[in-house]
């Protein structure tokens, strides 16, 4: 009874903490971005980018604190732990909930470079978000359609070249690039609609991951294949976190080498495209087994079975 009564209070505490901290950190990053915008001197911009990255790490620490603010979350992290803040990584991750981002921030704030995302060019003009992400040197991608390339062949490969140029800034600041390969959060309905061949996951989309490797592959020290599970959150994981009902977070980390056969022109080379899709699908089959192992470790049987769908 008392627990039920306290739920609204926990939601207010957790939501207010997350919102206030995000607003403060966001404003600090934007303040750093203003002189960076006005002073296009490489040495000055690198210094300001490093400062912004340090402030961004404070947000990572804050998101990590969120997991213990009103509830004793137990972390079950297995796999590779020899990670370093001064290296470059690409993350392949399943997408269960929006809570995945604070989970990755929790991991990164301790022993990984702070994460970056590839963003659509249009997001630059979104108030606060655009300037904040620009200050943090997150690449804004401008993709050209086949129709645009057909009308102007000079655009062929220009998106790759432009993004590679923007990513040169990452040579000065160790970076982790995140790819949620499924492209959307997992739900039973999506699993059924996509007729997924995986028991606990949606089919992965290879294009974005291949593009990231084509653009930055030679900068990465390793690929981090990360699997996240919330075994005891039968309802919304976001609600479970905010209401203090999230009890366990299971994470598996596997480090993979960046080999030359993973770097190629996915959108122009049909043989490479097939090879890369096969590679990513094989990783996803392995991830599916790891996911099942995490759920079994937590003492929860699978909630989804290939062929038909049911809720526990």
Automatic annotation (TrEMBL):
Q: Which UniProt keywords apply?
A: Acyltransferase, Membrane, Transferase, Transmembrane, Transmembrane helix
Q: Which GO terms describe its cellular component?
A: plasma membrane
Please state what the protein is called: Acyltransferase
Pfam families tied to this protein: Acyltransferase (PF01553)
* InterPro entries per the UniProt record, alphabetical: Plipid/glycerol_acylTrfase
Q: Which residues form the Phospholipid/glycerol acyltransferase domain?
A: 89-231
**Organismal lineage:** Bacteria, Pseudomonadati, Pseudomonadota, Gammaproteobacteria, Alteromonadales
TM regions (residue ranges) = 12-34
Q: What GO molecular function annotations does the UniProt record carry, in alphabetical order?
A: acyltransferase activity
């Amino acid at each position: 009874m008392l627990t039920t009564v306290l739920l609204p209070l926990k939601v207010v505490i957790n939501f207010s903490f997350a919102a206030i901290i995000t607003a403060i950190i966001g404003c600090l990053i934007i303040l750093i971005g203003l002189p960076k915008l006005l002073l296009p001197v490489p040495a000055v911009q690198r210094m300001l980018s490093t400062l912004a990255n340090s402030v961004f790490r404070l947000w990572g620490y804050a998101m990590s604190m969120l997991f213990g603010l009103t509830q004793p979350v137990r972390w079950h992290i297995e796999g590779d732990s020899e990670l370093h803040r001064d290296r470059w990584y690409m993350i392949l991750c399943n997408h269960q909930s929006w809570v995945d981002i604070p989970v990755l921030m929790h991991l990164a704030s301790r022993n990984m470079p702070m994460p970056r995302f590839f963003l659509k060019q249009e997001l630059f003009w979104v108030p606060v978000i655009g300037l904040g992400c620009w200050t943090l040197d997150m690449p804004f991608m401008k993709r050209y359609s086949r129709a645009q390339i057909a009308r102007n062949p000079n655009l062929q490969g220009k998106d790759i070249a432009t993004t590679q140029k923007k990513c040169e800034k990452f040579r000065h600041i160790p970076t982790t690039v995140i790819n949620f390969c499924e492209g959307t959060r997992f739900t039973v309905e999506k699993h059924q609609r996509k007729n997924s061949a995986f028991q606990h996951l949606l089919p992965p989309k290879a294009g974005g991951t291949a593009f990231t490797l084509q653009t930055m592959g030679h900068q990465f020290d390793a690929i981090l294949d990360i699997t996240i599970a919330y075994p005891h959150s039968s309802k919304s994981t976001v609600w479970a976190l905010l209401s203090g009902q999230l009890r366990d977070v299971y994470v598996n980390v596997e480090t993979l080498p960046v080999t030359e056969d993973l770097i190629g022109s996915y959108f122009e080379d049909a043989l490479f495209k097939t090879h890369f899709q096969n590679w990513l699908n094989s990783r996803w089959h392995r991830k599916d087994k790891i996911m099942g192992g995490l759920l079994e470790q937590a003492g929860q049987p699978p909630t989804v079975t290939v062929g038909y769908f049911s809720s526990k």
